[in-house]
């Protein structure tokens, strides 16, 4: 990456159209705040300087930002141009290229940004836009071209006339500027009265009039252009991201029977030859070993660790639990806060009653134990090695079952020691 470049990420907006108290950029996409995808992208591109503009809910966003990022607060949310202006305030001595990214655009790929920057440099441009041709361009700024097909402006949806609304080339929000031109253009912007905002996109027509060199790189993968402004956009972006996650896992040797009905959070580790059956939901912070079988209809939540050769079958919820290899949990049940050894058989309908007046208690089951169907384990409780619980038994809290013991009934009592 060249030295004389800075990247500005705009993340100050409230996201009115989300109708949410959570700042828009913290809304999760595949289990992860959307802002983090953009931060990953700039990290991968190794920009020497990255400025993140925060505003609405900045206290909530800050903990997600790594050291080394410059944070600027936009005091009043006066639009994208004003946000960039705040960032430029922290870049007084900088000369060179400014790349602007929007934090509500989590599907962008680093290859695309590289291409954009290369095109900008090789053609000595003053401004380079990243644009996309969308069949349904509603909601995006439309790219205006003059009679020679040179870019002469961007018109936002709410101000576009019928003719302009039919333009399919949209502004993705990613724009590369030479800093001196950007600084000059921003000074000339007018306030849009309706929204009480200054639009960064207005810089284009200002610079066109000053005969700046403006061009665009068009996205070949349209999905990368998708920005999140509404819950509908969020679901669309989620779907695309989920497809990417599932494709990557399949490339790594995981079988996903039906990727369209399989929801796996970003960053989930799954070993080779594991098979995931349909309607499985795997949330954040889950690790699955090799050769496991998961689902259908399994719900694996945070803190779940499955070692190799585990079967976690249908209608199961597992949370904050470690399960060692060759353990079988083949049919419906709930395991929360549990530590389960190797080669354990958990019968259908087993439930760990882990919740007790605001406290979550731990259930421990040692290697080779056999938990009969419909056993309720009232935590905290321990089941020893190779112990057996009878069908329908209830193991009261702190009434540990010793290794090799067989217990039955409610409350469970030993019939073999
Ligand atoms: C913007 C573009 C539009 C483009 C679209 C692509 C403008 C005026 N319009 O519209 O041409 O097609 O993105 O997705 O730029 N933000 C701030 N401070 C503010 C306002 C916004 O930091 O005062 C941030 C937001 O947090 C967001 C980004 O800027 O990350 C874009 O704002 P948003 O309101 O989403 O703009 P769009 O309507 O999507
Ligand atoms: Mg947006």
Polypeptide structure, described:
The chain has 417 residues and is of the alpha/beta class. The protein folds into 2 domains: 221 residues, Spore Coat Polysaccharide Biosynthesis Protein SpsA, Chain A (Alpha-Beta Complex); 184 residues, UDP N-Acetylglucosamine Acyltransferase, domain 1 (3 Solenoid), CATH 2.160.10. The protein has 8 helices and 38 strands. The mean pLDDT is 97. The structure holds uridine-diphosphate-N-acetylglucosamine and magnesium ion. The site of magnesium ion (MG) has 4 residues, from loops. The site of magnesium ion has 4 residues, from loops.
Provide a brief overview of the structure.
It is built from eight helices and 38 strands. By secondary structure, it is an alpha/beta fold. The protein is elongated and about 90 Å long.
Task: Name the features.
binds magnesium ion; 8 helices; 417 residues; ten-stranded mixed sheet; Spore Coat Polysaccharide Biosynthesis Protein SpsA, Chain A; binds uridine-diphosphate-N-acetylglucosamine; single chain; alpha/beta; 2 domains
